[in-house]
Design a protein that fits this description.
Layout: E1 7-9, E2 12-21, H1 46-54, E3 60-67, E4 82-86, H2 88-103, E5 104-105, E6 116-117, H3 119-127, E7 132-135, H4 149-164
Parallel strand pairs: 2-3
Antiparallel strand pairs: 1-2, 3-4, 4-7, 5-6
Amino acid sequence: MDGQKDVHLYDKPVSIKAVTCGGKGKTRRIPASSIKLSWGGNAESETKKKQRESFNPQYGMIIASFALHFDGTNHSGKWTVGLIYVPQHVVEAVFKKLKLEGFVKKGSKGDGRGDSISNKALTELHDHADTVKIEINWKMPASWKPKSDLDFWKHKIRQLRDEEE
Protein backbone atom coordinates (compact mmCIF):
# COMPACT_ATOMS: atom_id res chain seq x y z
CA MET A 1 0.00 0.00 0.00
CA ASP A 2 2.69 2.45 -0.91
CA GLY A 3 1.60 5.41 -2.95
CA GLN A 4 0.92 7.11 0.37
CA LYS A 5 3.69 9.64 -0.15
CA ASP A 6 2.15 12.86 -1.49
CA VAL A 7 4.57 15.68 -0.60
CA HIS A 8 7.85 16.31 1.20
CA LEU A 9 7.85 18.38 4.38
CA TYR A 10 11.37 19.35 5.46
CA ASP A 11 12.76 16.62 3.20
CA LYS A 12 10.53 13.94 4.74
CA PRO A 13 7.75 12.23 2.77
CA VAL A 14 4.25 12.92 4.06
CA SER A 15 0.85 11.51 3.14
CA ILE A 16 -2.04 13.97 2.78
CA LYS A 17 -5.51 12.82 3.85
CA ALA A 18 -8.87 14.57 4.09
CA VAL A 19 -11.87 13.81 6.26
CA THR A 20 -15.30 15.37 6.66
CA CYS A 21 -16.62 14.98 10.20
CA GLY A 22 -20.25 14.56 11.11
CA GLY A 23 -22.10 16.05 14.06
CA LYS A 24 -21.80 19.43 15.77
CA GLY A 25 -19.70 20.63 18.67
CA LYS A 26 -19.27 18.01 21.37
CA THR A 27 -20.98 15.34 19.26
CA ARG A 28 -18.51 15.73 16.36
CA ARG A 29 -17.19 12.38 15.17
CA ILE A 30 -15.21 10.81 12.38
CA PRO A 31 -17.28 8.58 10.09
CA ALA A 32 -16.18 4.94 9.97
CA SER A 33 -13.79 4.13 7.10
CA SER A 34 -13.28 7.80 6.35
CA ILE A 35 -9.52 7.97 5.76
CA LYS A 36 -8.31 5.56 3.10
CA LEU A 37 -4.94 3.84 2.98
CA SER A 38 -5.60 2.53 -0.50
CA TRP A 39 -8.21 3.23 -3.15
CA GLY A 40 -10.11 1.01 -5.49
CA GLY A 41 -10.15 -2.68 -6.12
CA ASN A 42 -12.04 -5.50 -4.53
CA ALA A 43 -11.19 -5.89 -0.83
CA GLU A 44 -11.22 -9.67 -1.36
CA SER A 45 -8.75 -9.71 -4.27
CA GLU A 46 -5.32 -11.30 -3.86
CA THR A 47 -3.65 -7.97 -4.71
CA LYS A 48 -5.52 -6.12 -1.96
CA LYS A 49 -4.90 -8.94 0.49
CA LYS A 50 -1.13 -8.83 -0.21
CA GLN A 51 -1.10 -5.01 0.09
CA ARG A 52 -2.97 -5.16 3.39
CA GLU A 53 -0.78 -7.90 4.88
CA SER A 54 2.45 -6.12 3.90
CA PHE A 55 1.35 -2.65 5.05
CA ASN A 56 3.94 -0.91 7.18
CA PRO A 57 3.60 2.86 7.77
CA GLN A 58 6.57 4.80 6.44
CA TYR A 59 5.33 8.39 6.43
CA GLY A 60 3.81 11.05 8.61
CA MET A 61 0.39 12.47 7.73
CA ILE A 62 -1.26 15.81 7.23
CA ILE A 63 -5.01 15.48 7.69
CA ALA A 64 -7.28 18.25 6.40
CA SER A 65 -10.35 17.96 8.58
CA PHE A 66 -13.65 19.57 7.63
CA ALA A 67 -17.02 19.49 9.36
CA LEU A 68 -20.50 19.37 7.98
CA HIS A 69 -22.56 21.86 9.99
CA PHE A 70 -19.45 23.50 11.49
CA ASP A 71 -20.53 25.66 14.41
CA GLY A 72 -17.29 27.66 14.56
CA THR A 73 -15.93 25.83 17.60
CA ASN A 74 -13.37 23.17 18.36
CA HIS A 75 -14.06 21.32 21.60
CA SER A 76 -11.20 19.80 23.57
CA GLY A 77 -11.19 16.03 23.52
CA LYS A 78 -13.08 15.92 20.22
CA TRP A 79 -11.86 15.68 16.65
CA THR A 80 -10.15 18.92 15.54
CA VAL A 81 -11.52 20.81 12.57
CA GLY A 82 -8.53 22.24 10.68
CA LEU A 83 -5.12 20.80 9.81
CA ILE A 84 -3.61 17.95 11.78
CA TYR A 85 0.05 16.93 11.43
CA VAL A 86 0.87 13.43 12.64
CA PRO A 87 4.66 12.84 12.65
CA GLN A 88 5.99 9.56 11.27
CA HIS A 89 7.14 8.33 14.71
CA VAL A 90 3.56 8.74 16.00
CA VAL A 91 2.12 6.74 13.08
CA GLU A 92 4.72 4.02 13.70
CA ALA A 93 4.05 3.95 17.48
CA VAL A 94 0.27 3.65 17.03
CA PHE A 95 0.75 0.95 14.38
CA LYS A 96 3.12 -0.97 16.68
CA LYS A 97 0.61 -0.74 19.55
CA LEU A 98 -2.52 -1.71 17.56
CA LYS A 99 -0.82 -4.12 15.16
CA LEU A 100 -1.99 -4.49 11.57
CA GLU A 101 -5.42 -5.84 12.56
CA GLY A 102 -6.16 -2.85 14.81
CA PHE A 103 -4.72 -0.15 12.54
CA VAL A 104 -6.09 -1.15 9.12
CA LYS A 105 -9.81 -1.60 8.54
CA LYS A 106 -10.44 -3.85 5.57
CA GLY A 107 -12.73 -2.40 2.93
CA SER A 108 -16.09 -4.11 2.61
CA LYS A 109 -16.64 -6.62 -0.16
CA GLY A 110 -17.60 -4.89 -3.40
CA ASP A 111 -17.03 -1.44 -1.84
CA GLY A 112 -14.27 -0.55 -4.30
CA ARG A 113 -13.13 2.28 -2.02
CA GLY A 114 -10.30 0.29 -0.46
CA ASP A 115 -8.89 -0.17 3.02
CA SER A 116 -8.97 2.57 5.64
CA ILE A 117 -7.41 3.55 8.95
CA SER A 118 -9.53 2.23 11.82
CA ASN A 119 -11.40 4.71 14.02
CA LYS A 120 -9.38 3.54 17.05
CA ALA A 121 -6.13 4.25 15.20
CA LEU A 122 -7.40 7.67 14.05
CA THR A 123 -8.36 8.60 17.60
CA GLU A 124 -4.95 7.55 18.93
CA LEU A 125 -3.13 9.41 16.14
CA HIS A 126 -5.22 12.54 16.81
CA ASP A 127 -4.84 12.44 20.59
CA HIS A 128 -1.08 11.74 20.70
CA ALA A 129 0.94 14.43 22.50
CA ASP A 130 3.26 14.92 19.49
CA THR A 131 0.43 15.44 17.00
CA VAL A 132 0.11 19.10 15.99
CA LYS A 133 -3.38 20.51 15.48
CA ILE A 134 -4.17 23.84 13.84
CA GLU A 135 -7.79 24.79 14.31
CA ILE A 136 -9.36 26.52 11.31
CA ASN A 137 -12.72 28.23 11.20
CA TRP A 138 -14.16 26.72 8.03
CA LYS A 139 -17.58 28.26 8.71
CA MET A 140 -19.28 29.38 5.52
CA PRO A 141 -22.55 31.21 4.87
CA ALA A 142 -25.47 28.78 5.10
CA SER A 143 -26.59 29.81 1.61
CA TRP A 144 -23.32 28.69 0.00
CA LYS A 145 -23.33 25.03 -1.03
CA PRO A 146 -20.03 23.95 -2.66
CA LYS A 147 -20.29 21.33 -5.39
CA SER A 148 -17.10 19.62 -4.19
CA ASP A 149 -14.19 19.88 -1.76
CA LEU A 150 -12.24 21.54 -4.59
CA ASP A 151 -14.83 24.34 -4.84
CA PHE A 152 -14.62 24.77 -1.09
CA TRP A 153 -10.79 25.06 -1.15
CA LYS A 154 -10.82 27.50 -4.10
CA HIS A 155 -13.28 29.70 -2.22
CA LYS A 156 -11.23 29.66 1.01
CA ILE A 157 -7.97 30.42 -0.85
CA ARG A 158 -9.62 33.38 -2.63
CA GLN A 159 -10.84 34.66 0.75
CA LEU A 160 -7.35 34.42 2.26
CA ARG A 161 -5.77 36.12 -0.76
CA ASP A 162 -8.32 38.95 -0.57
CA GLU A 163 -7.60 39.42 3.16
CA GLU A 164 -3.84 39.67 2.48
CA GLU A 165 -4.23 42.42 -0.13
